[in-house]
Amino acid sequence: MVEHGTINSYAIRDMGVNGSRSSISVASNSTGFAGVDGNLDIGPTDLTQGTLTPAIISLIPTVTNVRYISVPQHTFRGTIDSYEIGASFEPTASASVTKGEITFGGTDAIKFTGSITFTPITSTSPASEFWGIDRSVTFGTSMNILSSTAGIVDTGTTLVLIATDAFTRYQTAIGAVVDNATGLLCLATEYFANLKSLFFHVGGTTFELTANAQAWLCSLNSLIGGKTNSVYLIGLDFINGLAFLERFYSVFETGNNRVSLATTPFTHATTN
Q1: For the chain, where are the E strands, in sequence order?
Q2: What angle do CA 234, 236, 242 make, to 5 degrees?
Q3: CB 217 within 8 A of CB 243
Q4: What average pLDDT is seen over the chain?
Q5: Which has the closest alpha carbon to 19: 82, 58, 55, 61?
Q6: Is the pLDDT of residue 75 over 60?
Q7: CB atoms within 10 A of CB 55
Q8: Which among 3, 35, 103, 247 could bridge 27 via Cys, Cβ 3.0 to 4.6 Å?
Q9: What's the whole-model pTM score?
Q10: Which burial class, exposed, middle or buried, applies to 141 when counting CB atoms under 10 A from its CB (0-12, 13-18, 19+)?
Q11: Are 82 and 106 in contact (CB under 8 A)?
């Protein structure tokens, strides 16, 4: 997605609380935003550097910055107690039905099950510049797909992406072929029933991405140029995108410099 335009300052009011004057970019032209009015960036703040001209070294406060930080020269003080964001998504069977929630300044206990696993932001660049974590991946109970490496957790990425070498091992293990129309792996329906889970090992906890969670929703195949009755798999460098986050609760903690994950009631959902 690309947009170009001007930065304007507005007073934000939400949940009955007046916010400080916040900068909002108004695009004069854009690409990649079909069907939406804009996007809400939640950080990290360092990613804004280089996006403002001529002050290319300046940082632009995110929505979370404005809600958390007390600004001495204004009467406004932060409206959230913790410098973090909780994100909840659910699998959906329709492109028009969106199921998501963002909690500023904390977590929503009804959106996850069990305990939350906390893991520090990776020190490995460039993942360290984003919501980056270290993790490894196995296929089934014993086959190593990806040794411990750095990557990111990203609400703005649709699929689950893994490194090319891991992708190749995964493809070989399941017997899938690359579909030219979609660019995704296509698996014969008779093999889908025997597809094993992928296990993501993060911060000492294992998170299971079931076979059902690995498949692009069949009812939405037409949106990616696929065939109605085919099975396409959500899989290239390591990014845990929306397809992963629909199954797990995530917390992005700027204050503690870490990303946290937990299971949800939809971790083992059979949406397909």
Answers
A1: 2-14, 17-31, 84-89, 100-104, 113-120, 132-139, 143-153, 160-161, 177-178, 185-187, 198-202, 205-209, 231-233, 239-240, 248-253, 258-263
A2: 45
A3: no
A4: 79
A5: 61
A6: no
A7: 12
A8: 3
A9: 0.77
A10: exposed
A11: yes
- Per-residue pLDDT band for 193 (boundaries 50, 70, 90) equals confident
- Rounded to whole angstroms, the Cα distance separating 245 from 154 reads 8
**């550097």: which residue's tokens?**
49
Question: Tokens representing 139?
Answer: 């296929």
Q: DSSP readout, 149-171?
A: EEEEE-TT--SEE--HHHHHHHH
If you search the block for the tokens 């001495």, which residue do you land on? Answer: 72
- pLDDT computed for residue 43 by the predictor: 66
Tokens coding 3: 């947009």
pLDDT digits (tens, 9 = 90+) for 107-143: 999 999 999 999 999 999 888 888 889 999 999 988 9
CB 59 within 8 A of CB 67: no
CA–CA gap between residue 80 and residue 82 (Å, rounded): 6
Residues 6+ apart with CB under 8 A from 226: 179, 181, 182, 184, 186, 216, 232
